[in-house]
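Appendix B, record 7
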Amino acid sequence: AQVFEWHLDIGKQAIADRTHALASRLKDGLSAMDHVTVRTPMSDALSSGIVCFDVDGIDPGTVVNALRADHNIIASVTPYAVRHIRMGTSIVNSEEDVDAALAAIGSLNR
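Structure tokens (predicted):
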């Protein structure tokens, strides 16, 4: 119940704005990497806090495992026929969290 009160105190729009801002930061950082292909639309109107992408030449499961083991970053693999890496942003994340994820992903395939 406390988490619902916390969300109401912050406000739905503030949560949505924060989620979009962090997701945009993640998408922008990923799209600047030559070895990454962002699969999620860049537009806020077409996406929210979930960002899907691929790292050239590395299986999505391998990327997810490396992020967790080497950087304590949680990601997942999409449950579809064509698999992608999936990360999510939310009100509990910071810009520093996103930057740490970007640095970790940037170090892959190097």
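Remarks on this record: The chain has a mean pLDDT of 93. Residues 46 and 84 are 18 Å apart (CA to CA).
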